[in-house]
Specification:
The chain is mostly helical. Helices cover 71% and strands 6% of the residues. It is globular.
């Protein structure tokens, strides 16, 4: 499992480099593609970045034409972030950059019986939830450590 995760992370890093992006850029674009839209605050929470770092990242992605900001029609203070057509074309699910891995993963999963695929999908869904929970716990632990450090520095 550790080797799989390591290979997955490395693939993400190389894919980002090939596309001229940073790994975190590709990660954020993937989150926006999955969610459809997000606020900067939600992205900060999902990426464990500060709001300032998210603002810089989004500014860069807007300049590259990959993300757009839209004000909420009900609350003009709220800003929604979405991917642009250019982002979808170049790095979205059907983009040529991801075609080779998508094709290989489709071929691999198709080689299993329906019953085995159901078990694999169940594992992946459950493993994703476990990863989200442990990451959340680590984020809370990190926040508590930062608060203690700042409290002791005064």
């Amino acid at each position: 499992m550790r080797e799989f995760i390591t290979a997955l992370v490395l693939n993400g890093q190389v894919t980002a480099e090939v596309s001229g992006l940073r790994p975190v850029d590709l990660y954020v674009l993937n989150l926006l593609d999955i969610d459809g839209r997000s606020t900067p605050g939600e992205l900060a929470q999902r990426t464990a970045l500060t709001t300032g770092a998210v603002t810089k990242l989004v500014d860069r992605l807007v300049r590259l034409g990959l993300v757009q900001r839209t004000h909420d029609t009900d609350d003009r203070r709220r800003v929604w972030l979405t991917t642009t057509e250019q982002a979808t074309r170049n790095i979205g699910e059907g983009a040529s950059l991801f075609s080779p891995i998508a094709r290989r993963m489709d071929d691999l999963i198709s080689s299993y019986s329906d019953e085995h695929r159901a078990v694999i999908f169940d594992f992946l869904l459950r493993a994703t939830e476990e990863l989200k929970e442990i990451t959340s716990a680590l984020q809370e632990q990190r926040t508590g450590q930062r608060a203690r450090i700042r409290g002791g520095a005064h």
